[in-house]
Amino acid sequence: MAAPFDVPAAVAAMTLEEKCACLAGEGYWELGGCPRLGVAPITVSDGPHGLRRQAGSADNLGLAGSEPAVCFPTASAAACSFDADLVRTMGEALGDEAREQGVAVVLGPGVNMKRSPLCGRNFEYYSEDPHLAGELAAAYIEGVQSRGVGTSLKHFACNNQETNRLIVDAVVDERALHELYLEPFRIAVEKARPWTMMTAYNLLDGAYCSEDAGLLALARDEWGF
Predict the structure, then answer these.
(1) How confident is the model at residue 1 (pLDDT cuts 50, 70, 90)?
(2) Domains and CATH numbers, the chain
(3) In contact, 103 and 53? CB cutoff 8 Å
């Protein structure tokens, strides 16, 4: 049996340019690797309810053909079961399929709150209730990652509408932010340790989520991401 890959040693040996290359896209669904150290490109795939692996020409809208894959119930449907064990089993099946298709990270689950019926991703989020959303997301993450495949908890945070999502500013007071919008993320991170998190596209109280040092520090320093 081959020795496990020494990730900390590889990261320590990388130059700054090589580290950045591992975070930059080589295509729609691949992150660059580090050939010098034997780090292969990382393949990711939508989505939370069934893989959208595009082996040929790829796009971000699903217009090109995808590899055949099982389509599971959406998060909104799965949440109606209130059954964490069932969601964990679904995650295990997705993890198995991801390994078979060479996918390293599944881009899900989504735990944003259903706050408007106009949100185009309501089907992709679990619940209006932050506790239920967090518990089911944790189960999903445990299931997928038990198969050696990563997850990407999203969209961090307050991605509660799709209209103008690249420029909209979600203005939320501190109590609502922590008790409602961040709570499912906290539960999922602390219970299940997702390999990755995906920041939201929108601004939160005036700052883009991917650039919000306070938001990112919260996940790392308080939740242990």
Answers:
(1) low
(2) 67-222 (3.20.20.300)
(3) yes
